[in-house]
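Students often ask why we bother encoding 3D structure as a string. The short answer is that it lets us treat folding as translation between two languages. Here is a chain of 408 residues written in the first language.
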Amino acid sequence: MGNPTTRTIDPTNTPEGGEGGRLAAFSVAFALWITMAGTTAPTPLYPLYGEQFGFTPFTVTVVFAVYALGVVLGLLVFGRLSDQVGRRPVLIAATLLSVCAAAVFLFAENVGAVLVARVVSGISAALVTGAATASLAERLGPHARVKPATVALLANMGGLACGTLLAGILADVAPSPLRTPWVVMLALAGVGVLGVLLNGESSAHRSGFSPRLQPLHVPGEIRSDFLRSAMAAGSGFAVLGVLTAVTGLFLGTVRHESSHALTGLVVFLAFACTALGQLLVRVLRPTIALPAACAGLIAAAGLIALSMATGTLAPLLAGAAGNGLATGIAVGHGIGGITTRSAPQHRGAAVSTFFAILYSMLAVPAIGVGVLIRETGLRPAGETFSAVVAALCLGVLLSLVRTGRKAA
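And here it is in the second language, the structure alphabet:
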């Protein structure tokens, strides 16, 4: 979900040119795509895991949340690893972890195995995003027809979107719905490992391994804008997390839909529109982007609450798409502010802090919704959660209005 690290690319690191360079860049993009696809592939399968292992909706939200906590842990511990040891070793490690996670899912016999697989998936996502983004920048160079950042965004968000849809379709049409999707994911992840193994290192400068936590940093010069962007984008991430965790439960228990592909479609729309929002923010004025994102998040929360109250599908689809679009705009605005207005020596730490906040928001509210579901039921929990998200985004929007009046 976005790129959690930024790198300073040395122009003396000449990208590999010609077909070989493009093939190497494709291999890196594919490794990023399949690793991220593996992180959302369990989404349409959660109801099946619940039936097979006999766990509750609350357990589903915990299973999802440990993935996000794995990402945060990976960011804090391994955020600078590809700068220290090179892009290639980190990409190999990330894709191998993706293979391991798929293998654990394939042979899972209890909820403990599913939890382990989710943590491994989270660490693989934390490793691959920064290393792949930096490697694409180094291989394609600043004058590529399609910008490296755009390739990384499409591979990252495309993987998140396609993983859930592919797994849902396979669960519907193929035999053994809890095995076949993981056989396919395992094979594709194996191709990803092979691709990065066959290509050389793209970074000419490595500082050497020195284990330490990535320092968190909120830039003082843009603190208010940073925090507003983080709150808005974090609200959108919270909705993405809850959609990912409980959409299958809603469709199965409220609408009595047996299609796993439909669950995948809802989450696909959310992540695909998140990518679109991150592209759209490039043509929006900074003064418009965050207020528009907040308004979109409020509208999306209202649509999701309407879907919960009425049990209808159309508001859920529209809410998922609207939330994704608004979240992408908020994320793009936040990252843009950090990379253009904060001190260069603190940008990497600031971006890592930004995404640590977002992934924490992805995890913690999902667990809270799980508790509410246990106490009140799915639909009241969904309505309450939507109201909280709308209130938080309204608070950010009012803060922006007050700041604008003071500036005027």
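Translate back mentally: Residues 4 and 355 are 6 Å apart (CA to CA). Keep this in mind for the problem set.
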